[in-house]
Amino acid sequence: MSKKKIVQIISIVFLVIAVLLLIPNTNWKDDTSVLGFISLVCGTLGSIISIFIPTTYTFMFIETDWKKDVADEGFCIIIPSKKHGLGNSPQTQTFLKNKMNTYEEVGVASNHDENGNVTIGATLVFEGKAIIK
Fold this sequence. Notes:
The protein is of the alpha+beta class. It has 3 helices and 8 strands. The radius of gyration is 23 Å and the shape is elongated.
């Protein structure tokens, strides 16, 4: 488990403890007190949900996934931002699947537009994976 996840879980534990301790101490007739309690509960729920939001997306591809690049003499794969879900400034690493069925990082052209749609370009088609962060 990553250090980031551990810190998130510890923070959530403290938030849950705060919610439980605040239940009997909230003045339910005072709007400010109730709003403070609701805010703490919403913050706790948001933190819990954040643990399950992915921070990377892996796109496995095969040779037939490559399309002829009209603007270039090579080939490209386009991964829409709606598919990877990682915003409009993603970083991409591309890996080639070699004969030993292991992956080695390759230097190919990769970029994204203002909407976060990722384009990977290469002069030859190959099977592999792209990891988007």
